[in-house]
Amino acid sequence: MLPDRFAVISDIHGNLPALQAVLADMHGRGVSHAVNLGDILSGPLWPAETADLLMGLNLPTIAGNHERQLLACQGKPGGPSDQYAFDQTSPLQRAWLASLPGALRLGDVQLTHGSPHSDLQYLLDDIVAANLVPASRKTVAQRLGQTSATLVLCGHSHMPRLLQLPDGPLVLNPGSVGLPAYDDSDGGYHRVQTGAPHASYAIAERVATGWQVQLLRIAYDWPQAAQRAADNGRPDWADWLQSGMAT
Questions:
Q1: Which sequence spans correspond to the domains of the chain?
Q2: What are 88-110's pLDDT values in tens digits?
Q3: How far apart are the C-alpha atoms of 3 and 131, rounded to whole Å?
Q4: Would residue 244 be called left, alpha or beta, if left means φ above 0 and alpha means ψ between -120 and 50 degrees?
Q5: What is the pTM of this model?
Q6: Considering 76, 80, 142, 212, which has the largest number of Cβ atoms within 10 A of its Cβ?
Q7: Who's near 65: CB < 8 A, 6+ residues apart?
Q8: CATH second-level architecture of 5-243?
Protein backbone atom coordinates (compact mmCIF):
# COMPACT_ATOMS: atom_id res chain seq x y z
CA MET A 1 0.00 0.00 0.00
CA LEU A 2 1.21 3.46 -0.86
CA PRO A 3 1.37 6.35 1.62
CA ASP A 4 -0.95 9.30 1.09
CA ARG A 5 1.89 11.33 -0.47
CA PHE A 6 4.39 9.86 -2.92
CA ALA A 7 6.46 10.70 -5.99
CA VAL A 8 5.87 9.37 -9.51
CA ILE A 9 8.85 8.92 -11.84
CA SER A 10 8.99 7.52 -15.36
CA ASP A 11 11.10 7.25 -18.49
CA ILE A 12 14.51 7.69 -16.87
CA HIS A 13 16.36 6.26 -19.89
CA GLY A 14 19.63 5.81 -18.02
CA ASN A 15 20.00 9.51 -17.24
CA LEU A 16 21.73 9.18 -13.89
CA PRO A 17 22.29 12.90 -13.07
CA ALA A 18 18.66 13.69 -13.89
CA LEU A 19 17.48 10.86 -11.63
CA GLN A 20 19.79 11.98 -8.83
CA ALA A 21 18.45 15.54 -9.10
CA VAL A 22 14.85 14.30 -8.96
CA LEU A 23 15.53 12.10 -5.93
CA ALA A 24 17.24 15.01 -4.15
CA ASP A 25 14.34 17.33 -4.91
CA MET A 26 11.85 14.70 -3.76
CA HIS A 27 13.63 14.19 -0.47
CA GLY A 28 13.97 17.94 -0.01
CA ARG A 29 10.17 18.15 -0.19
CA GLY A 30 9.82 15.49 2.50
CA VAL A 31 8.68 12.74 0.11
CA SER A 32 10.17 9.36 1.02
CA HIS A 33 8.25 7.02 -1.30
CA ALA A 34 8.12 6.81 -5.09
CA VAL A 35 6.85 4.57 -7.88
CA ASN A 36 8.61 4.02 -11.22
CA LEU A 37 6.63 3.59 -14.45
CA GLY A 38 9.30 2.05 -16.69
CA ASP A 39 11.62 2.80 -19.64
CA ILE A 40 14.43 2.79 -17.15
CA LEU A 41 17.80 2.18 -18.81
CA SER A 42 17.64 2.38 -22.63
CA GLY A 43 19.73 5.15 -24.11
CA PRO A 44 23.36 6.21 -24.62
CA LEU A 45 23.89 7.46 -21.06
CA TRP A 46 24.50 5.59 -17.77
CA PRO A 47 22.38 2.41 -17.87
CA ALA A 48 24.44 0.28 -15.47
CA GLU A 49 24.86 3.03 -12.88
CA THR A 50 21.14 3.86 -13.08
CA ALA A 51 20.26 0.19 -12.57
CA ASP A 52 22.53 -0.03 -9.51
CA LEU A 53 20.90 3.02 -7.93
CA LEU A 54 17.34 1.86 -8.54
CA MET A 55 17.95 -1.74 -7.53
CA GLY A 56 19.19 -0.42 -4.19
CA LEU A 57 16.10 1.73 -3.72
CA ASN A 58 13.70 -1.15 -4.44
CA LEU A 59 10.83 1.12 -5.54
CA PRO A 60 7.54 -0.31 -6.80
CA THR A 61 8.46 -0.50 -10.49
CA ILE A 62 6.85 -1.67 -13.72
CA ALA A 63 8.41 -2.49 -17.08
CA GLY A 64 7.96 -0.28 -20.13
CA ASN A 65 8.38 -1.10 -23.80
CA HIS A 66 12.12 -0.44 -23.62
CA GLU A 67 12.59 -3.09 -20.93
CA ARG A 68 11.00 -5.57 -23.33
CA GLN A 69 13.08 -4.31 -26.25
CA LEU A 70 16.33 -4.27 -24.27
CA LEU A 71 15.85 -7.85 -23.12
CA ALA A 72 15.08 -8.93 -26.68
CA CYS A 73 18.66 -7.94 -27.61
CA GLN A 74 19.67 -11.28 -26.09
CA GLY A 75 18.26 -12.96 -29.19
CA LYS A 76 19.02 -10.44 -31.94
CA PRO A 77 20.47 -6.93 -32.23
CA GLY A 78 18.08 -4.18 -31.20
CA GLY A 79 17.79 -0.48 -31.81
CA PRO A 80 20.79 1.64 -30.83
CA SER A 81 19.37 2.83 -27.48
CA ASP A 82 18.30 -0.64 -26.39
CA GLN A 83 21.46 -2.30 -27.69
CA TYR A 84 23.76 0.14 -25.91
CA ALA A 85 21.97 -0.42 -22.61
CA PHE A 86 21.99 -4.18 -23.11
CA ASP A 87 25.73 -4.19 -23.81
CA GLN A 88 26.51 -2.02 -20.79
CA THR A 89 24.42 -3.87 -18.21
CA SER A 90 25.21 -7.05 -16.30
CA PRO A 91 23.24 -10.32 -16.31
CA LEU A 92 22.09 -9.48 -12.77
CA GLN A 93 20.78 -6.09 -13.86
CA ARG A 94 18.98 -7.60 -16.84
CA ALA A 95 17.47 -10.26 -14.59
CA TRP A 96 16.08 -7.45 -12.46
CA LEU A 97 14.47 -5.91 -15.55
CA ALA A 98 13.04 -9.28 -16.53
CA SER A 99 11.44 -9.63 -13.09
CA LEU A 100 9.43 -6.41 -13.38
CA PRO A 101 5.66 -6.70 -13.95
CA GLY A 102 4.01 -4.94 -16.87
CA ALA A 103 1.46 -3.30 -14.57
CA LEU A 104 0.72 -2.93 -10.86
CA ARG A 105 -2.30 -2.16 -8.74
CA LEU A 106 -1.46 -0.66 -5.34
CA GLY A 107 -4.71 -0.16 -3.47
CA ASP A 108 -6.75 2.26 -5.57
CA VAL A 109 -3.73 3.39 -7.61
CA GLN A 110 -3.17 1.75 -11.02
CA LEU A 111 0.28 1.78 -12.68
CA THR A 112 0.66 1.28 -16.42
CA HIS A 113 3.45 2.30 -18.78
CA GLY A 114 1.47 3.09 -21.92
CA SER A 115 -2.13 1.97 -21.75
CA PRO A 116 -3.51 -1.20 -20.13
CA HIS A 117 -3.70 -2.70 -23.63
CA SER A 118 -0.20 -1.89 -24.94
CA ASP A 119 3.09 -0.55 -23.64
CA LEU A 120 3.39 1.30 -26.97
CA GLN A 121 0.03 3.09 -26.84
CA TYR A 122 -0.08 6.65 -25.56
CA LEU A 123 -2.85 6.93 -22.99
CA LEU A 124 -3.19 10.71 -22.69
CA ASP A 125 -1.90 11.81 -26.12
CA ASP A 126 -2.81 11.62 -29.81
CA ILE A 127 -0.48 12.05 -32.79
CA VAL A 128 -1.66 14.97 -34.93
CA ALA A 129 0.43 16.47 -37.74
CA ALA A 130 3.57 14.71 -36.43
CA ASN A 131 3.19 16.14 -32.92
CA LEU A 132 1.58 14.97 -29.67
CA VAL A 133 -1.60 16.70 -28.55
CA PRO A 134 -3.81 15.93 -25.53
CA ALA A 135 -6.32 13.18 -26.24
CA SER A 136 -10.02 13.75 -25.53
CA ARG A 137 -11.61 12.45 -22.35
CA LYS A 138 -13.68 10.02 -24.43
CA THR A 139 -10.57 8.63 -26.12
CA VAL A 140 -8.70 8.27 -22.83
CA ALA A 141 -11.67 6.51 -21.22
CA GLN A 142 -11.86 4.06 -24.13
CA ARG A 143 -8.14 3.32 -23.95
CA LEU A 144 -8.25 2.90 -20.21
CA GLY A 145 -11.30 0.66 -20.04
CA GLN A 146 -13.11 -0.24 -16.86
CA THR A 147 -11.22 0.46 -13.66
CA SER A 148 -12.11 1.02 -10.03
CA ALA A 149 -8.85 2.94 -9.46
CA THR A 150 -9.13 6.54 -8.30
CA LEU A 151 -5.67 7.41 -9.68
CA VAL A 152 -4.11 5.99 -12.85
CA LEU A 153 -0.39 6.60 -13.44
CA CYS A 154 1.07 6.28 -16.94
CA GLY A 155 4.26 7.17 -18.78
CA HIS A 156 5.64 6.45 -22.26
CA SER A 157 4.87 9.78 -23.97
CA HIS A 158 7.33 11.82 -21.84
CA MET A 159 4.68 14.59 -21.77
CA PRO A 160 3.54 15.78 -18.33
CA ARG A 161 -0.25 15.54 -18.41
CA LEU A 162 -3.15 15.45 -15.98
CA LEU A 163 -6.74 14.54 -16.88
CA GLN A 164 -9.78 14.02 -14.65
CA LEU A 165 -12.25 11.60 -16.20
CA PRO A 166 -15.92 12.32 -15.37
CA ASP A 167 -17.10 9.77 -12.81
CA GLY A 168 -13.71 8.11 -13.17
CA PRO A 169 -10.10 8.31 -12.09
CA LEU A 170 -7.59 11.09 -12.27
CA VAL A 171 -5.02 10.11 -14.91
CA LEU A 172 -1.46 11.37 -14.45
CA ASN A 173 1.61 11.24 -16.65
CA PRO A 174 4.57 12.70 -14.71
CA GLY A 175 6.67 13.28 -17.84
CA SER A 176 10.18 11.95 -18.31
CA VAL A 177 12.97 12.11 -15.78
CA GLY A 178 15.66 11.57 -18.36
CA LEU A 179 14.65 12.55 -21.91
CA PRO A 180 12.62 15.74 -22.54
CA ALA A 181 12.31 15.30 -26.32
CA TYR A 182 12.60 12.65 -29.02
CA ASP A 183 11.23 11.58 -32.38
CA ASP A 184 9.67 8.23 -33.18
CA SER A 185 8.05 6.35 -36.04
CA ASP A 186 5.76 4.06 -34.06
CA GLY A 187 2.19 5.00 -34.97
CA GLY A 188 3.55 7.27 -37.70
CA TYR A 189 6.45 9.69 -37.52
CA HIS A 190 6.07 12.22 -34.72
CA ARG A 191 8.04 14.51 -32.44
CA VAL A 192 7.78 14.79 -28.67
CA GLN A 193 8.93 18.13 -27.28
CA THR A 194 8.52 19.50 -23.76
CA GLY A 195 10.33 22.72 -24.66
CA ALA A 196 12.95 22.69 -21.89
CA PRO A 197 15.75 20.33 -20.81
CA HIS A 198 14.58 19.94 -17.20
CA ALA A 199 13.87 16.56 -15.62
CA SER A 200 10.17 15.91 -14.99
CA TYR A 201 8.38 14.09 -12.19
CA ALA A 202 5.24 14.44 -10.10
CA ILE A 203 4.10 14.29 -6.50
CA ALA A 204 0.63 12.87 -5.81
CA GLU A 205 -1.13 13.42 -2.50
CA ARG A 206 -4.41 12.00 -1.27
CA VAL A 207 -6.57 14.75 0.24
CA ALA A 208 -10.13 14.84 1.55
CA THR A 209 -11.53 15.80 -1.86
CA GLY A 210 -9.53 13.29 -3.93
CA TRP A 211 -6.01 13.62 -5.35
CA GLN A 212 -3.75 16.66 -5.43
CA VAL A 213 -0.85 16.67 -7.90
CA GLN A 214 2.31 18.72 -8.45
CA LEU A 215 3.94 18.45 -11.86
CA LEU A 216 7.58 19.42 -11.35
CA ARG A 217 10.45 20.35 -13.69
CA ILE A 218 13.88 20.07 -12.08
CA ALA A 219 17.16 21.65 -13.17
CA TYR A 220 20.20 19.35 -13.38
CA ASP A 221 23.48 19.21 -15.27
CA TRP A 222 22.02 18.54 -18.71
CA PRO A 223 25.19 19.65 -20.54
CA GLN A 224 26.88 16.67 -18.86
CA ALA A 225 24.17 14.33 -20.11
CA ALA A 226 24.29 15.82 -23.60
CA GLN A 227 28.07 15.41 -23.72
CA ARG A 228 27.74 11.79 -22.63
CA ALA A 229 25.29 11.15 -25.48
CA ALA A 230 27.57 12.89 -28.00
CA ASP A 231 30.60 10.91 -26.77
CA ASN A 232 28.60 7.71 -27.32
CA GLY A 233 27.77 8.60 -30.92
CA ARG A 234 24.26 10.00 -30.43
CA PRO A 235 24.15 13.65 -31.52
CA ASP A 236 20.35 13.38 -31.75
CA TRP A 237 20.11 12.59 -28.04
CA ALA A 238 22.62 15.35 -27.28
CA ASP A 239 20.36 17.89 -28.99
CA TRP A 240 17.22 16.58 -27.28
CA LEU A 241 18.83 16.62 -23.85
CA GLN A 242 20.25 20.11 -24.29
CA SER A 243 17.11 21.78 -25.66
CA GLY A 244 13.98 19.79 -24.88
CA MET A 245 13.14 20.14 -28.57
CA ALA A 246 13.17 17.61 -31.41
CA THR A 247 13.24 20.01 -34.35
A1: 5-243
A2: 999 999 999 999 999 999 999 99
A3: 36
A4: left
A5: 0.97
A6: 80
A7: 38, 39, 113, 114, 119, 120, 156
A8: 4-Layer Sandwich (3.60)
